Amino acid sequence: MAEIRAKSITVAAVTVAFGLLLAALSAHTIGRSGGDPSSDGADAPEVPLERRITDFTAGIGPDSGYREPRRAERRAVADAVGLILDGHPDRARPPLADAGFRLRTLADTGTGRRYAELSDRTEDGPAPRGWGRVYVDLSAPARWSVQVPHPVSDADTERLGARVLLGSPGGVLVLAGAHRRAGEDDAADAAHRTDSVFDAVCDELARRGLPGVQVHGFADDSAPGRDAVASTGAGSAGRADARRLAAALTARHLTVCRAWVRGCPLEGRDNVQGRRAAAGHVPFLHVEFARSVRASDTGIRHAAAAIDTVTSRWAKGQGQPSAGRLSPAARLRPSASLSPAA
Q: Positions of the region Disordered (predicted)?
């Protein structure tokens, strides 16, 4: 009888200890999920992604600093993006570390989608380099990109870019990290330089055949009477998509100058990312929005919804004559979730 009682006490003690261990693990998990969203890890802290992006760009200004990256640094980040698109995030960590970048997984509170965030580690230091960020949707195969080369200087294009990313699955957001006047001799003007991290990443995406839309902004008096200027830049592969976008903007009561119909200001024909896409016959849209459109949440919402009519098709693989350039891994399955940082 005493032996049975002893065994019962032992079983009870083990059960209690196991319960305490589970409780501790649960508390640790909850603490991590509700903690600093900048922490690395596969638990994907939930954050409002648009606000996270605008909090980052709030620190960008003409005097916020910019250092021109070396070729090896540009290539390291672009190669890492390619590895993530191919489902190999762990292999992406070494080149990112060599370039001074951090890799995190975040979940957007609005859509529930998980995103890889590639960010410059020096953002937290006294001398930021201004190399920007990249966000990759991990919930679906990567099929398109939205590019923001002039955050803050083209006011609120960063907000528009975030809305476009969140509007359709399978997107990649390439966000410049410096004001276009931050560098010497226009070094930080990402839309017109081929020696930036921004351009290297866009080049990698174009090489894979991902169509892209690049968003810009103009002062109202630069194109009087127009709310938007839609163009395919230096190429014509995105002409059908541009027509669809212009129609969607018009349906939302925005007046559009169509660069394939008549001469428009700000057509972006010398945009270097557009030229690269044109060389590969990859659809590319260059879209400018008036300040009056970008100045209100309603205007940004209408602009993002119009662009979504195009990106939603791209997300389904429609209207992509260059889709065959995608690697088999990128075509057939979503990008893998990221494991905790080493």
A: 315-342
